[in-house]
Amino acid sequence: MLARWAGLVVRRRWWILSVAAALAVLAGVASTTLTSRLDQGGYDVPGSESVRANAAAAKALGDHGVDALAVYTVPAGQSLRDPATVRAVQRKVAGLPAAKVAGATGWWQQPAQLSRDGRTAAVGIRLRVTGQGDQLADWEAVQRELDGKAGATYGVRGLTVRFSGATAMGVAVNAQTESDLKRAELVSFPVLMVLLVVVFGGLVAACLPLVVGGIGIVGALGVLWVLSAFTDVSVFAMNIVTLLGLGLAIDYGLFMVSRFREELHTGAGAAAGGRSGDKDADRNADRERVRAALAVAMRTSGRTVLVSGLTVAAALSGLLVFPQGMLRSIGLGGIAAVVVAALTAVTVLPALLAVLGYRVDALAVPWGRRAGDRPRPTGRHARPAVRTERGWGRVGRAVMRQPALVAVVVIGALLLAGTPFLRAEYAEVDASVLPKGNPVRTATEQVRDRLPAASTDAAQVVLVGTDGRAPGQQAVREFAADVSAVPGMGQVAPLGGKGDRVVLAAQVDGDPQGEAAQAAVRKVRDLAPPAGVDEVLVGGPTASLVDTLQAIGDRLPWMLAVLAGAVLVLLFLAFGSVVVPVKAVVLSALSLTASFGAVVWIFQDGHLIGLLNTEAGPIDASIPVLMLAVLFGLSTDYELFLLSRIAEAYRAGASAKEAVVIGLGRTGGLISAAALLLAVVVGAFALSGLKFMKLIGLGMLIAIAVDATIVRGLLVPAVLALLGGAAWWAPRPLARLAHRLALEGPSDPDPDPEPGAAGRGPAPASPAPGTEGEPEADREPAGTF
């Protein structure tokens, strides 16, 4: 099928490229409005007690609720109690557009919004609209009205204003996200270009994976734009999905271009015939060679890219079992981004290769041909080849001498590196994800430290009366006393009420997201409702974290089942073995262990934290789940490329150990190059100003490095050597089923030649389908690692 698709691509290459360009432009234009459509939340568990408590409190408090806080400060020696200062702020607040602002409450109305020393105070602002995009746009307009280098605007010397609250944080996160994406592109693309030139030895070939990567970026953002019309999409999905779309598209482009060039010069293209000296005949012969090389590249690398895309998408589908909107939106967007990357690699890239033909080698760099290379006698387009076993082939040979020792040492090292994860602590996403010094983060810290009554860290306890009647005052006072008596809870005071609901604000001692605070909230929830109260609901950040951890713990087994089940099925269909898929799942889990441990060791324990320009603290509860899905898919992706060549050599008659050496020698360099390219993309995102993205980026960087070197280069060969031929075993009924449903089935017949080509050439010899596109066992193309 893929070979026939290659024939269609050759015939319709200009049509395919035109449609792809139009779709890319459309997606790029749509993505310019993407940030205003994204959701800042998505961390809450729908239907949980904390969500119901927060909704009930918002309804009960009515006008006392706020969307954002304007936080004012004055220098030492001044006071916000000064009448002139109060009047200046009142005039500014009164001038806010009524079409955008539903109400504002200042410290002159709520004394709790003024600090004891009188130097810090807040104005609570409630917006009219509730829609995410419109609300952020309205808040940006309000912020511009209140800001403006406050001293000059208000006429008060030394007065400054910063902004806090969910809406202000949303605007700040959007701005930081856009800045991070631009910086990541500016940093990663030049570095990727240099590395690809080194890999391919030519400028034209190096540009092709970047073209696929660029389409992957705009395609991923376009997909998010479409998804945002049907469901809430987290703002963090923008970074994660872009990272996946760019990284995988470049990797897939690398595999496809490598295989096409190999077949063009030393494989199917060379076998299609030499040059005759007749210009027209030679032109048709060139077309035939390009068509033959592209057909084999699609049957092999193209099929592997599709299987890889399915595997990564299946891993990301594990995020869909969680109720949190943030995880679900990243799962949906990630699946779409992987599909875009894979389809681009087997559609747009082959069309470009069909247009370029032998010009894919144009603009070669000096190291493109190495001294001592001997051209093969297949015409002026022949590529050099050398016979040697080096690099990863030598590593594989060394591992074969002591596979048991290698396996024990590597497994022990990975488990040891993962031990810090056993003491992981978790938190909810708040303003601390913003970089130090960010005005919104500074304002949030000022409110927490100096205006605790206005802080959102307090737990909200909602008492719902029976029969639609409000709870009695005596019952409320008694229950407030019971709450304050719970270890870990501080002062409890009424916030207000409406109808049958009364809301209490309960301060939490110490870190509101620490273990002690979580235990205190659980104990408050266990208190019996007082007389006249039908239900007690506990909300707030600590309660939300408790519900999040509970939901993740409940759904994690289902996610693991989806991950493992999908990978087991796909790898079974790819290789016809029941042992290889189990080995892949176990080793991928070991690979992730080291990454999770490193994340805790760095970001929670604080080692090397100064180099990252952030601070130590608990890890967001969603990050390990997100990393599990993404990294599990990527690690299985590299496993697929390695095992394809090992299986090919084994089925061709090599012994189990020799097949491992041959497979590692053929794939090690290309996997290393692909991992290095992906590491550049991930590393650029690790420079993000958002702690959330910094943690994910560095965690992925560590996982990629460990997986592509220690696991794929040492542990996988060692385990396969120990298993021997048993690695490829399957019960006879399953073996027959795998043969009938094989994702890497028999070679497709050659497609019809392009009109004008000089007839059908001989069927090109090719390795087993599903291989990733490395040179023959005794050859390594010039310009590659």
From TrEMBL:
<protein>
    <submittedName>
        <fullName>Putative drug exporter of the RND superfamily</fullName>
    </submittedName>
</protein>
<feature type="transmembrane region" description="Helical">
    <location>
        <begin position="236"/>
        <end position="255"/>
    </location>
</feature>
<keyword id="KW-0472">Membrane</keyword>
<dbReference type="InterPro" id="IPR050545">
    <property type="entry name" value="Mycobact_MmpL"/>
</dbReference>
<feature type="compositionally biased region" description="Low complexity">
    <location>
        <begin position="755"/>
        <end position="772"/>
    </location>
</feature>
<keyword id="KW-1003">Cell membrane</keyword>
<keyword id="KW-1133">Transmembrane helix</keyword>
<feature type="transmembrane region" description="Helical">
    <location>
        <begin position="585"/>
        <end position="603"/>
    </location>
</feature>
<feature type="transmembrane region" description="Helical">
    <location>
        <begin position="710"/>
        <end position="730"/>
    </location>
</feature>
<feature type="transmembrane region" description="Helical">
    <location>
        <begin position="404"/>
        <end position="422"/>
    </location>
</feature>
<comment type="similarity">
    <text>Belongs to the resistance-nodulation-cell division (RND) (TC 2.A.6) family. MmpL subfamily.</text>
</comment>
<feature type="transmembrane region" description="Helical">
    <location>
        <begin position="186"/>
        <end position="205"/>
    </location>
</feature>
<feature type="compositionally biased region" description="Basic and acidic residues">
    <location>
        <begin position="776"/>
        <end position="785"/>
    </location>
</feature>
<feature type="transmembrane region" description="Helical">
    <location>
        <begin position="334"/>
        <end position="360"/>
    </location>
</feature>
<feature type="transmembrane region" description="Helical">
    <location>
        <begin position="664"/>
        <end position="690"/>
    </location>
</feature>
<feature type="domain" description="Membrane transport protein MMPL">
    <location>
        <begin position="433"/>
        <end position="732"/>
    </location>
</feature>
<feature type="domain" description="Membrane transport protein MMPL">
    <location>
        <begin position="47"/>
        <end position="405"/>
    </location>
</feature>
<feature type="transmembrane region" description="Helical">
    <location>
        <begin position="558"/>
        <end position="578"/>
    </location>
</feature>
<feature type="region of interest" description="Disordered">
    <location>
        <begin position="743"/>
        <end position="785"/>
    </location>
</feature>
<keyword id="KW-0812">Transmembrane</keyword>
<dbReference type="Pfam" id="PF03176">
    <property type="entry name" value="MMPL"/>
</dbReference>
<feature type="transmembrane region" description="Helical">
    <location>
        <begin position="210"/>
        <end position="230"/>
    </location>
</feature>
<dbReference type="GO" id="GO:0005886">
    <property type="term" value="C:plasma membrane"/>
</dbReference>
<dbReference type="InterPro" id="IPR004869">
    <property type="entry name" value="MMPL_dom"/>
</dbReference>
<feature type="transmembrane region" description="Helical">
    <location>
        <begin position="623"/>
        <end position="643"/>
    </location>
</feature>
<feature type="transmembrane region" description="Helical">
    <location>
        <begin position="304"/>
        <end position="322"/>
    </location>
</feature>
